[in-house]
Structures are given as C-alpha cells and as structure tokens.
Amino acid sequence: MLRPFRSEWDAVQAPDNPDQRPAPRRRSLLLCACLLLTGCGDGPWNNPHPPPEEGKLTYYSVMSPAPPKHLDPAISYATDESLFLMQVYEPPLGYHFLKRPYELEPLGVEAMPSVTYLDAGGEPLPAERADEAAYSRYHLTVRADARYQPHPAFARTDDGAPRYRFDDPAEGRRYRQIGDFAHTGSRPVRAEDYAYAIKRLADPEAGSPMIGFMGRYIVGMEALTAELGDAPRDGWLDLRDFDLAGVEVLDDRNYTITINGRYPQFVYWLAMHFFSPVPAEVDAFFHNPGFTESNLTLDWWPVGSGPFMMVKNDPNSEIVLERNPNYHGDTYPSEGAPGDREKGLLADAGKAVPFIDRAEFRLEKAVLPLWTKFLQGYYDRSGEVHGNTNSVFDRAFVVGPEGLELADDLADHGITLSPDVKPGLYYYGFNMRDPVLGGYTEERRKLRRALQIAFDVEEYLNIFYKGNGIVAHSPIPPGIPGHKEGAEGINPYTHDWVDGEARRKPIEEARRLMVEAGYPNGRDARTGEPLKIFIDVQSQAISTTSMNWIDRAFSRIGVQVEFRPADWNRTREKLLTGNTQIFSHGWLADYPDPENFLFLLYGPESPLVCNCDGTNNASYERPEYDALFEAMRVEPPGPARDAMVARMVDMYREDAVWLYAYYPKDVYLNNAWVQNTKRHGISKNTLKYLRIDPELRVAKRRQWNQPVTWPLYAGTALIIALLLPGVIAYRRRQRATAR
Amino acid sequence: MFAYIVRRLLYAIPILIGVNLLTFVLFFVVNSPDDMAVSQLGAKYVTPEAIENWKAKNGYDKPLFYNDAAGGLDAVTETIFFAKSVRLFAFDFGRSESGRDISTDVRRRMGPSLAVALPTFIVGIGVNICVALMVVMFHATRLDRAAVIVFVALMSISYLFYIIGGQYLVAKTWRLVPISGFHADGQVWKFLLLPVLVGVVAGIGAGARWYRTLFLEEANQDYVRTARAKGCSELAVLFRHILPNALIPILTGVVVLVPMLFMGSLLIESFFGIPGLGSYMLDAINSQDFAIVRSMVFIGSILYIVGLILTDISYTWADPRVRLS
Predict the structure, then answer these.
(1) What is the C-alpha to C-alpha distance for residues A357 and A325, in angstroms, rounded to an integer?
(2) Which of A370, B143, B166, B183 is disulfide-compatible with B138, CB 3.0–4.6 A?
(3) More confident residue, B138 or A335
(4) Nearest to A429, CA basis, from A617, A648, A611, A572
(5) pTM of the full structure
C-alpha cells in the first residue's frame, strides 16, 4: 500500500482541522466532460481548413518546404515561385498544356511573334541572308481582350487622378493588406506595359537576376542599366521617361524587341514571367511611401491579367489565389499527346477554364503533416514528391513491372499518380582539367569510361531513388528535341543493346579499360600507388549509405573513393576555382531546347574561362564541340540542326565528360476527385485546367476522418487511476487519529 | 532599485555589441556577401554584374570590418559591420535579404508564437509543480520511486519523439485534432491543443523532477514541521508553506524564460506549422538571410537580458529580505 510522506508530527494532526478540506469530488468528471466537448461541431474534428466561402470551389494544396522569397516577375527565378507567378501573370507566350514535345503558343499576345533579321545598319535582310544578321527584331501584338485584375493601383478619383498616391508615409502605413483598399480599378493590357517590364529588368534598383544576362542580348539594355544607375531617385522613378533602344512601342497593342545577332531561343524567354506586363501605375502605386513597412510591394503582391489573382499572401502560412473576374477566358485544349485521350485528359476539351474559383496553398515544412493531411483528404494534391527513400512518401510507391506504381492501400483510396520526367539532369561531372582524371588522351578517356561502367546507375537509382529517375545516355532529357530512345539512344561506351533494352557493360570491361588506361587493379602501373578519386558533394544531398554504395561500386575495379561533403557555398567556390576532381551538380531547363543542355559543355561557359558562375563546371573544352554549338544555337530546327546535336552528343560520350547522369522523375499524388492532373515540366501555368469534384471530396473527407474517441475516455480513466491512490492515501492519512 | 535597473541596462550595451559581433563573425565565416547574392538571385545565369548589383543594393559592397580605402573614422563606419549593426540599437531592423520589412514580420509572428508558448509555459509550470508536490507528499514511498523512474524516462526521450508521436497518435490515428496548421481567424484553439499538450508532456520529466528536488529540500525544514504541528493539512503545508519558500530557485529558472516566450519554439513551430518567430529564425538560417538572423539574435539577447533583470526584481517580491542596490 502507498504510504504518504509523514513527519513525526503527522500523528498529532486532528482529522477535523478546518485546513483539512477534502478535494472536490467531481473534478475527474469535470475533466471528462471537458474532453468530451473538445472538438464538438460540424464535420470532422481534424479539418485544418477554415470553412470555405459559400459558392466558391476551392483547391487545397501546399507550398513546401519553404515559402516563396520573391514574387516580382523581374526578380523571381525559382520554380516554387513560378507556381504563383504564372497563375497571375501572362507573359507573351505560353506552352500547350498537353502536347509533347513541349510546344509554344501565344498567351498574352495574339499570335506567335514574327521575326525580322536586320543588318548592322538596321535594314531588313531577306530570309536567305539571315546568317548575316546583326540584329533580330521580334514583333508582338498584345491580345485585345486582356485586362488586369481589379486592383487599387488602377483606382481613380472622379477627376481621373490615381486614387492611392500619397506623399505622407503615415498615409501609406494605414494599409497593411491589399484587401484594405476600398476602391479598385482595371484597364486593358497595353504594349507599353510589356515595354515597362523589360525596362525594369535593366533597372539596378529592381535587382533582377537577368540584369547581366539579358543585357547581352536586348539592344541598349546595358546602356539603360548604366543610365538608371546614375539617375537621381526620390521615390518612384518613371521608367517610361527612359528609352530602351531595343524595345519600341508602336501603339497600344504592338511592340517590338530587338536583340543582338540571332538567338532563336529568345522566344522561349518570352514564355517566362520576366517578360510579363507591368503597368507603370502599378509600379508607382507600390512606391507609395509607407507601403514597404507593411510589405506592400510588387515583390509580394503580383498584379496581372492571368486567370487568378492573389488575395492573400502570408508567406508564413498561406497564399490564396482567386479567380480573376477580368480574365479574358480560355478553353481546355482539344488536342493532346498520344494516349491523353485514353487517360481522360481530353474529356473537358473546349470547356471554359479555370474550373476552380479559389486555390489555397498552405506552408508545410514537415513531411508527416503534409502526408497525413493529403491522406485525410485535406489536400487535393500532394505537391511534388521526390523519390528520396528517406521521405515518408516512400511508402506510397512500389516498383512494379510497369515501373513506379502506387502501393495497394493508396490505390484503394482512389489516389492517382502524376509522374513526370523533369527536363533536367543530375550528374557527377569530371573536372576535365584535373591532372589525374581530366584530359583528352585515349588513356584518360578509358579511365573515365571504366569509372562510368563501374558506377551502376540503374542499381543506384533503384536503391536510393526507388526508380524515380532514368539513366541519362546523353545530356538531353526526354521531351527535348535531340533526345533519342532505343538502340540509337544508348551510350555505346557504357551500354550494349541486348534483347531490346540497354544493358550496362560488364565489370570485366571496366577492368580491361583500367588496364589499358595504366591502372591495372586500380593501381598506377608506373608507381604502384592505388588510384584514389575525390568526389565533392553537397552534404545535404547525399547520405552515408549512398557514399558506402559508391565506395563499394568503385572497389570492384580497385579504385578508392574519398568524399568531400560541403555546403553549396563551398562547393560553388571549388567549382569557380576548378579545385575539384569529381563534383555533383544538376540542371533544370529554362526552355525545351537542346541548346539549354548542350551549353553545359560549351567551353566559354567554363567558370575558369568566363570568370563567372558558368554552367560548364566540368571545364570541357573541345574546339569542334564549341564550333558546332555556336552554329547549332542559331540554326533553325531541322535535319541540319539535329545532325549537329547528334554529333555533339557523340563527343560527350567519346570524351566521357560526366561520371554518371540521370533524368529525375517527380511525382504528384492526386486524390480521386482531382482531374486533368497532367504535369508540365516547363510551365506552371496549369492550375486553370484542374477540375475538382466537390461532392466526392466532402463525402470522402467525412468517411476518412471519423474521430476515434476511446482514447479520450481511456486518457481520463488513466488520469483518475493515477490520482486515485494518492487521493485515497491522502484522505486516509488526514483522517488518521493520533497514535 | 531604479539605480540598479539603470546600471543593469547600461551593462547590456557591451553585451549586445559583443553578441552582435559574434553573430556577425560566425555568419560571415561560412557565408560571403557573394554567397548571399547567389543564394538570393538563384543559381542560374548569375552574372558578376547581377551579383555586384545585388551587393550594392543591399549594402554588402563594403569591407566587413575595416575599410582601407576610407580614412579616419570612415575606415570603421564605412563597413558592413557598422552599417548593419548601428541601426539595430535604434530598433531599426531594416529589411530582410528578400526585401520584407523585418519589424512588421516580427510583430505579425509574435502573436502565433505567444499563442503556443504562453499556454505551454503556464500549464507546464502548473502541472510540473502539482506533480512534484504530489510526489513530495509521498516521499520515500513506492510512488515516489516510480515517479522518479518515470521522470527520468520522460527526460530521456527526444523532444522530436513527443512531437512526431503526438502527431501520429492524436492527429493521424485518432483524428481528434488537425495535425498542423494555424488560422488566427478560425478556431485557433483546435490548432493549439496538440502542440500545447506535446509541450507540456515533454516538459514534465525534467520540470517535475527538478521541482521535486527543490521541494524536498524545503520539506525537511523546521518551519514545515512547525506548520504540521500547528495542525495544517498536508495541502496547506505544501502550497502555503513549502511552495512559497521554494520560489527563489523556481523564479531563477522560470522568470528568465518569460520574455523569451516571444521568441517561440523552433521545433514545435516548424512541425506544427505555427507561423511564429521560431520558424522565422529557422527559415532565415536555412535561406542564409543574415538580416533576419542578426535581428532575431539581437532581439533574443535583449529579451534574455530583460528576463534576467525581471528575475532579480522577482526575488524582492518572493523574499522581502532581498534588496537590489
């Protein structure tokens, strides 16, 4: 029996002492009642969403794992941010939702831009003399029905002056959210807005990452940057007062962009948000004094003519988009890629979009809550799921005969998969200037090929990425012109085509190559020293298990490996100085053209050549490759260009520039009530096509989220059970008489 | 007391300068202004011009500590350290590297942090004290020994386990509350139940064990015996006699934490999706946002100093014999 702590004086306590008030007897019952009341109300108790607005069909998804840092179309340069920007803004061009290979189409303009080639004097050249062009001029016509979302920047007083333009910061500080403004207005999109946006790219004050890159192309941009840098500023600087030689506004709907030389890939840039229209009055509005203190800036409140407008931006917790009532309207495509019709992706052909009224994106930093809410039906889609086996999402997949498949319990849930091979690459590159592994002699090529064969990428992807990746035989991913499938698409130095599939060469071949390279059994034939290779990796991008696997893979040919994990900054430093032997890197395409991949091996792009963050981190230099690249980048699509691309890919294979590479696969999981979920590797302008069955969603949420109440009763009973012996012992002691 | 407080506040100035210097050095040991520019601009097509432009725009185009090119006092003032530090003492935190106003963000995030931290703190202290007093009441019994074992076991479990375990059981398996989230405009209480419960339960082991030790020291004092001899009930002895006399060490550990409640909890906020200052700090570290890190460390230092001063003041309230001079 429990014996309460007593002193020798306990015995003298009188049981009828007024200080001995018995504890209330029904405390436990009260506690029980409180617990039972917890969560009472309509619907599931665990619903994390506030009640939806009446009559608005809302889509629920996530922004994960970090909120956007920038939403200014001139500044933002991250995929996660494009998810929001591309719903609000309409750049001149966009991509067809369903067609593959990716296909450009007009978005903010009426038709694809026409191109005129000009000589050094600015005179037009005939098409057959296009290769002599000193400039290329793109003519664009803004669509007539495009109007901006309702926004206070467009609000006018009765006499036509802007309603919200202040001199006193105190006035500006009265507003904290964009919804605080009582008046809004709108107007049609004009050509001058597109011109204004391009001038903002040149403005040092805007801080666009394009300031140097686009300056090389758009005529007069560098001069405008210098001019704006010196311009005195007192509040808003009206960029309409400055000329940009390469951009000319012809009238309200027509404008031209002139670039240096020929750069056929420029049209792809016109499909990026950098070239979205920005009205001068919006820029002026956000320069009101006192606004920045409330984060009322263009960087946080995008203003556009797209299908949605941002109504709430709390990057700490959620971003909310709503249907733009002024949207010009669009219809669901009636054509798609082969197989789309069978998948039901053309069932909504010709219907008006968007199908949803509102989209709420919640910030989820941890995987377990994200996954749980998705399974509970509170998120319509999972967000991007990477094939990393450390993820909770890993249990969603099994590798079946058809590749990646959903686990049975999730398939029973009605969940569907939207896999997508990203137009990108992850790779380990050799430093071609390295004294041991670099160089272009036959011995060095054989040494690198031996290492390539020993690194069994297929096994690596299966073990560590659960098959969420495709072995890259060339730098050009699927869906991009120049990528080849089948026997002609394999790297013949590392694989053979056997029984209709690519098969990695046996390890004996690697050992033979090591002998021919002067490293029999992994030892230098001249010195007898073992060959030790050094791999620089980003510490957060690799696990100890992966390192052990790689170590074991190379030990089969007697090569020792040492990893040098570091954060991205230190890794970048090594790349900039060439102080690396093998490095890990990745590339996600900006546009679907082989040029955007093959320039990863273009000599002048080496950081050691350009003294910049060049993309050719392997410092690959082959004059023939560079000459072909320069010719290919201005060559129009066709057999001649295809041949150039093929030859460049051959050179990449011959020289064994990268240790290994793969095209990453990413997957979205969709609940059963979400339709039209096809992924687009380049464009994020696809939210308008999503369709949701709200009745099914409500029913499933109710079915999946019935609360389990017995733990409440059990917990109450447990607390009582814990307290009761003490209470009994205490009361017994208090009633005890003196001994 | 007034002179004492003023003196303590003056002592705070060199401490804050030191903390700021240390933060600055630690941050720039691993990050250069170029790294920050690349991080903010994105890793692609970042030209030297764009990097230089970003640095100039954000005030990182000067030397870190000493400007050789400038003469006289400017050699010190025309530096990143001086430019970024001095304004902190005027509570002007400026803008984050991504352009948001830090003071506004801090104000907005303070509420959610407090919404979780305050109930966790109050309920936690109440529960810990009650549990500890109960265990003291049964000192040297099997209950006491069992309780100590349970306390040690609870202390040994990682905080993460409580969070993930709590989410898994209460929110995922039993579906009693949302697993994470926060809506100030909705039923905010339902988002707070689980994090507060987890915070309280995770703190019982260490808290109750520590209070038990404090109370046991007092339980053997003569005045306790006298109280019992007078016929006080055990509850009266515990709450009216032992608890007030054990307050000094309790206040030492507790009052200093009160201002820090504003800073939130890194783990709880991140896992439960609470948009407070704890997750703000964590995000800033991850995104190399030095402006936020610097400001948050500065605010944290001030709050800690305030906490220490409050602790000293609270001694005079708890024990009239204590005089601040």
Answers:
(1) 10
(2) B143
(3) A335
(4) A617
(5) 0.87
Higher confidence at residue B193 or residue A23? B193
* A12 touching chain B per CB within 8 A: yes
> Which comes out higher in pLDDT, residue A436 or A10?
A436
Straight-line distance from the first to the last Cα atom of chain B, in angstroms, rounded to the nearest whole number: 6
How confident is the model over A348-396, as pLDDT tens digits? 999 999 999 999 999 888 888 888 999 999 999 987 655 443 455 666 7
CB A590 within 8 A of CB A681: no
* pLDDT at A572 > cutoff 90: no
Provide CB contacts within 8 A for A674, sequence distance 6+.
A380, A381, A416, A690, A691, A692
Measured distance CA(A78)–CA(B38) in Å, rounded: 12
Pairing of strands A560-566, A532-538: parallel
Show the DSSP H helices in A413-528 as ranges.
442-454, 457-464, 507-516
Cβ(A201)–Cβ(A211) below 8 Å? yes
Q: Which chain A residue's Cα is nearest to B47?
A: A212
Mean pLDDT (whole number) for A412-432: 88
Q: Which residue has tokens 């992966």?
A: A546
For residue A630, give both structure tokens: 């320069």
Rounded Cα distance between A553 and A507, Å, is: 10
Question: A726 pLDDT exceeds 90?
Answer: no
Sign of CA dihedral A25, A26, A32, A38: negative
Nearest residue to B183 via CA among A465, A316, A331, A82: A316
Residue A670 DSSP class: E
Distance CA A430, CA A339 (A): 39
Look at residues B312, B253, B303 and name the one whose alpha carbon lies nearest to residue B4. B312
Nearest C-alpha in B relative to A712: B176
Average pLDDT, chain A: 89
Q: Spell out which residues of chain A touch residue B215, defining contact as CB-CB under 8 Å.
A: none
Q: Which residues of B touch A201 (CB under 8 A)?
A: none
Shortest distance between the Cα of A499 and any Cα of chain B, in A, equals 41
Give, as one character, the DSSP assignment of residue A636: P
DSSP single-letter state for residue A65: S
Cβ within 8 Å of residue A639, ≥6 positions away: none
Check CB contact under 8 Å for A613 and B38. Answer: yes
Using alpha carbons, list the distances in angstroms from residue A513 to A455, A517, A522, A658, B246.
Answer: 14, 6, 11, 17, 78
DSSP string, B234-246: HHHIIIIIIHHHT
Tokens linked to B89: 């003492």
Cβ of A713 under 8 Å from any chain B Cβ?
Answer: no
Band of residue A185 on the pLDDT scale cut at 50, 70, 90: very high
Whether chain A has a CB inside 8 Å of the CB on B168: the answer is: yes
**Whole-number pLDDT of residue A223:** 96
B 89-128 residues inside an 8 A Cβ radius of A: 95, 98-101, 103-105, 108-109
pLDDT tens column, A648-679 = 999 999 999 999 999 988 778 899 999 999 98
Q: Give the relative orientation of helices B102-137 and B142-156 as an angle to the nearest 10 degrees.
A: 160
ipTM: 0.87
For A426, the token pair is: 């992850």
CA distances from residue A47 to A62, A379, B287 in whole angstroms, order as listed:
15, 11, 31
Report pLDDT digits (tens) over A76-91.
Answer: 988 889 999 999 999 9
Q: Is B29 at the interface with chain A, CB within 8 A?
A: no
Supply the DSSP string of B94-134, one letter for each residue: -B-TTS-BHHHHHHHHHHHHHHHHHHHHHHHHHHHHHHHHH
Pairing relation of β-strands A495-498 and A469-471? unpaired
In A180-252, DSSP assigns E strands to 247-249
